[in-house]
Design brief:
Blueprint (H helix, E strand, L loop, with lengths): L4 H9 L10 H13 L3 H14 L4 H13 L3 H14 L3 E3 L6 E3 L1 H16 L3 H14 L4 H13 L3 H14 L4 H13 L3 H14 L4 H13 L3 E11 L7 E10 L7 E14 L2 E16 L2 E10 L6 E9 L4 E8 L7 H5 L4 E13 L2 E12 L4 E15 L3 E14 L11 E18 L2 E16 L5 E13 L4 E14 L2 E15 L1
Antiparallel strand pairs: 1-2, 3-4, 3-18, 4-5, 5-6, 6-7, 7-8, 8-9, 9-10, 10-11, 11-12, 12-13, 13-14, 14-15, 15-16, 16-17, 17-18
Helix pairs in contact: 1-2, 2-3, 2-4, 3-4, 4-5, 4-6, 5-6, 6-7, 7-8, 8-9, 8-10, 9-10, 10-11, 10-12, 11-12
C-alpha cells in the first residue's frame, strides 16, 4: 500500500511457503507489486489464485483486470469487465430507506469495459461507450476524464483538452485527470505547461505509478535523438538507375529553450546508369521549432566536397483536430533526378499540402508542387491519397488505401525522366500483424500491396504493382526501427521495369 513494490516482492519471495497457505489479500498485494514492477505474468497468476478463493471480491477482480491488460490478454480482460457489468446492480438501496444511490462498483466496471476496448485498439467503440455513460451521468468526472483519454488516443487533442478542462474545473486535484491533461499537453507541444505540472505532481505525488510514467515520458522527450533511413536495391531499367541507394541520417539536440532543437544531417544517394554512375553527397545543419500548433524546420546544406549551397524550409500548422496544413521550399533539392545531376542539372522545389484526419483510422491528403530545373525545364504535380482502416483488433489491423498522381513538364527532350504529362491511379491493402507487445517492447509485421494503372503521353497505358514487407521493432521507449523488402513493377516511357529494394531505419533517443 505504500507503493514500495520491490520490497514487497522481496518479502513475498522470502516466505518460502506454498501459495495455498497464503491469504488471498496477501496474494493480491504481491500481485499488485509484481504488476507495478511490470511482471505481468506473475501478477496475473497470483491474482487469479486470489480471485479463485474469494470470487465475490470486486477489488480482487478489478486488480486482475489490469493484470490481463498488461499481459495483453484482450479476450479475458473484456470478458471479465462484461461479466462484472452483467452481475453488478446499477444502483444500491440503503437498507430501511427509499433512498437509491448509484453503485460505485458498477461504475468502475463500466469504466473497465471502456478501457479494455481502448487498450486493445477498439477506440471508436470505447468512445461511444463513454459518451453513452456521460449522457446518463454528465457531471461524473471519472467518466469525463476517461473520455478525454480516448479522444487523445484518437488524435483529437482539441476535444481532449476541452474535456480535461471541464474535469479539472470541478475537481482540480484529481491526479489521474491532471496526468492525462499533461500527456495531452505534451502531444500538443505545450512544453511550458507540462513542465509546470510535473513540478507540482513530482513534489506531492512522486510515488504514484501514473506520475512516474509521465515523468519518464518527459525525460525521453528531453533526450537527444538520432534518426536514419536507408533504401538499397536495383532496377531492371535505366530510368532511375540500375544499382541504387539512398541513405539519410539526422541528429537532433536536446530541447533548447523548450521549443527548439539543433539538427545535423547527411544525405547520400547513388545510381548506376549506362553512361556512368553518379553520387549525391550532402550535409548540413539547421533548427527545428516545435510549439503548440506549429512544427517547422529551417536548414542549410551543401555538397560534402564543397559548394552547391542549398536551403530547405518546412512548416506544418495543426489547424484543428481534423486539418493540418503544410508547406515546403527547397533549393538544390534532394528530389532532383540523379540522372539529371549527372548532366549538371539542379532543381528547386516548392509544395503545399493539406491533410484531413478524421481519426486514427481514416485520413486523406492533397499535395500540389512545382519543381524548377536549371536547364529551363519545370514540372508540376498533384497527389491525392486516402487511407481507411477496416479492422482494428488486438492482434492485427487491416486497411485499404487509394492514390492518384498526375504531373506535367514543360520539356520532355531532356536526358532524365520528364514526361510531358502522366497520371497514375492505385488501390492497395495493408495488413499489420502485432506479433508481440509487452509494455514498451513490441514486434510487428507489415504486409502491403498495391495495383494500379499508369498513363504517359505518347505511350500506351499499362498496369503497375507493388509489394512491401516490413518488420518493425520497438525495444523500449527510446529505441525502435524497421527492416523491409520491396518488389515492384513500373512502366516508364512505354517500357516495363522491375525493382527490388531493401529498406531499413532506426530511431534512437539517448
Amino acid at each position: 500500500n505504500r507503493l514500495r513494490a520491490a520490497e514487497a516482492i522481496a518479502e513475498f519471495e522470502s516466505l518460502g511457503v506454498d501459495h495455498g497457505v497464503i491469504p488471498s489479500y496477501a496474494l493480491a498485494a504481491a500481485g499488485r507489486a509484481y504488476l507495478s514492477e511490470r511482471r505481468a505474468d506473475t501478477a496475473r497468476s497470483l491474482l487469479e489464485q486470489a480471485v479463485a478463493r474469494d470470487p465475490g471480491n470486486f477489488q480482487l477482480r478489478f486488480q486482475l483486470f489490469f493484470a490481463y491488460t498488461d499481459s495483453r490478454e484482450a479476450k479475458r480482460a473484456i470478458e471479465l469487465a462484461r461479466e462484472l457489468l452483467e452481475t453488478l446492480p446499477e444502483t444500491n438501496r440503503v437498507p430501511g430507506s427509499k433512498v437509491v444511490k448509484g453503485n460505485r462498483n458498477y461504475l468502475r466496471a463500466a469504466i473497465m469495459f471502456g478501457l479494455a476496448q481502448a487498450y486493445f485498439y477498439e477506440l471508436e467503440d470505447s468512445q461511444r461507450h463513454f459518451e453513452r455513460l456521460l449522457v446518463r451521468a454528465p457531471h461524473n468526472t471519472d467518466l469525463r476524464h476517461e473520455l478525454a483519454n480516448v479522444y487523445r488516443w484518437r488524435g483529437w487533442l482539441d476535444r481532449s483538452l476541452s474535456e480535461y478542462a471541464q474535469v479539472l474545473a470541478v475537481e482540480p486535484e484529481l491526479v489521474s485527470a491532471r496526468v492525462g491533461n499533461a500527456h495531452a499537453r505534451l502531444d500538443y507541444r505545450d512544453y511550458a505547461s507540462v513542465e509546470r505540472e510535473l513540478h507540482v505532481l513530482g513534489e506531492y505525488y512522486d510515488d504514484e505509478p501514473i506520475v512516474k510514467n509521465l515523468l519518464l515520458r518527459w525525460q525521453v522527450h528531453n533526450r537527444q535523438e538520432f534518426v536514419t533511413s536507408a533504401r538499397f536495391g536495383n532496377s531492371s531499367g535505366p530510368t532511375f538507375g540500375n544499382d541504387q541507394y539512398t541513405v539519410d541520417a539526422s541528429w537532433f539536440s536536446k530541447p533548447l529553450a523548450r521549443y527548439f532543437r539543433l539538427l545535423l544531417f547527411t544525405h547520400d544517394a547513388y545510381a548506376d546508369f549506362p553512361a556512368g554512375a553518379v553520387r549525391r553527397e550532402r550535409a548540413g545543419a539547421g533548427l527545428e521549432y516545435r510549439r503548440m500548433r506549429w512544427l517547422a524546420t529551417a536548414r542549410l546544406s551543401a555538397s560534402r566536397d564543397g559548394g552547391e549551397a542549398g536551403f530547405r524550409g518546412t512548416a506544418n500548422y495543426r489547424a484543428s483536430d481534423l486539418w493540418t496544413l503544410g508547406a515546403v521550399l527547397e533549393t538544390r533539392s534532394n528530389a532532383n533526378p540523379l540522372r539529371g545531376q549527372r548532366s549538371g542539372v539542379s532543381s528547386d522545389l516548392a509544395a503545399m499540402n493539406a491533410t484531413w484526419t478524421r481519426s486514427e483510422s481514416t485520413e486523406a491528403a492533397i499535395q500540389v508542387g512545382r519543381q524548377d530545373y536549371s536547364d529551363g525545364n519545370a514540372g508540376t504535380h498533384l497527389l491525392l491519397r486516402a487511407e481507411h482502416r477496416l479492422f482494428n483488433r488486438p492482434g492485427f489491423r487491416l486497411g485499404i488505401n487509394a492514390q492518384y498522381y498526375a504531373d506535367e513538364h514543360e520539356r520532355d527532350d531532356v536526358d532524365y525522366f520528364s514526361p510531358k504529362d502522366s497520371r497514375g491511379a492505385y488501390v492497395g491493402i495493408r495488413y499489420d500483424w502485432l506479433m508481440t507487445r509487452r509494455y514498451d517492447f513490441g514486434l510487428t509485421h507489415m504486409f502491403a500491396g498495391k495495383v494500379g494503372r499508369y498513363e504517359q503521353s505518347g505511350f500506351d497505358a499499362d498496369s503497375t504493382w507493388l509489394f512491401d514487407y516490413e518488420f518493425q521493432f520497438e525495444l523500449n521507449n527510446r529505441f525502435s526501427g524497421h527492416l523491409g523488402f520491396s518488389r515492384r513493377g513500373d512502366v516508364f516511357d512505354g517500357g516495363r521495369e522491375y525493382g527490388t529494394f531493401v529498406t531499413g531505419g532506426i530511431r534512437w533517443r539517448f
